[in-house]
Amino acid sequence: MKVYGDSNSGNCLKVKWVCDHLALPYRWVEIDTRKGETRTPQFLEMNGAGQVPTVAFDDGRTLAQSNAIIRYLARDSALVPRDAFTAAKMDEWLFWEQYSHEPYIAVCRFLLVYLGKDASELDPEKVKRGYAALDRMEQHLAASRFFAGEAVSLADISLLAYTRVAHEGGFDLDRYASVRRWIGDVEAFLGLPPAR
User: Fold this and answer.
1) Which of 68, 74, 71, 11 is nearest to 38 (CA)?
2) Which residues make beta-bridge pairs with 55?
3) In whole angstroms, what is the distance from residue 112 CA to residue 114 CA?
4) Strands 62-64 and 27-30
5) Domain limits of the chain?
6) How far apart are CA 44 and CA 166, in angstroms?
7) 5 has which bridge partners?
8) Residue 144 gets which letter from DSSP?
9) Least buried of 15, 29, 123, 191, by fewest C-beta within 10 Å?
């Protein structure tokens, strides 16, 4: 299969990490979203939303949306809890990540790192909501090692993608001891070098 992705995107990296962890054979196709490479007729035929990540399978089918992709790729693996309720809790965190975490943590990072904005130019509401997401994570992780059950699941991989680089978006992780511990645990599990 081919994974079309932008290496600067946490949403794309979570697909790569799942493929690598599960030793799934794939070819990474680097897409530069800022050069409009997701807007070409060829790409839009594959994914009408014009977004990465997109996976093209050998049989011609395609799949988009990072959490849908990793949910499909890991469906029979230990990354999805066997217990139905614990798996549903994992899904709860996957949905939360895309609605209440990524739009704030990732967007602030994009503005600072890729658009060269100053922290003073960030939308205060986005910053507030980003800290609210980190607060919720800290509260959960103070009582639980991972997000769904006693082992790393897709919820952890999904949330790791932008949390590990939240400082690049101007978020101070120093007050989040449990989040920092969890980042290190999941990075080690995936064999990733610590985020700088």
Assistant:
1) 11
2) 3, 63
3) 6
4) unpaired
5) 1-72, 82-188
6) 30
7) 30
8) -
9) 191
Token pair for 108: 């602030």
Task: Assign 135 to helix, strand or coil.
Answer: helix
pLDDT tens digit sequence for 102-128? 999 999 999 999 999 999 999 999 999
Structure tokens at 5: 């992705």
CA 69 to chain centre: 11
β-partners of residue 128 are: none
3-state SS assignment for residue 119? helix
Q: H helices within the chain, ranges in order?
A: 10-21, 41-46, 66-73, 84-96, 102-109, 124-141, 154-163, 177-190
- Residues 66 and 53 sit within 8 Å (Cβ to Cβ): yes
How far CA 89 is from CA of 21, 81, 106, 187, in Å, comes to: 22, 9, 23, 21
Neighbours of 113 (CB within 10 A): 14
Number of Cβ atoms within 10 Å of the Cβ of 51: 19
Using alpha carbons only, give the angle 33, 103, 115 rounded to the nearest 5 degrees.
Answer: 45
Task: Report whether 154 contacts 70 (CB < 8 A).
Answer: yes
Dihedral angle of Cα 30, 168, 151, 86, to the nearest 10 degrees: -90
Quickly tell me which residue has 């986005």 as its tokens. 126
Please give the CATH architecture assigned to the domain spanning 82-188: Up-down Bundle (1.20)
Q: Which residue has the tokens 């509260």?
A: 139
Q: Specify the CATH number of the domain 1-72.
A: 3.40.30.10
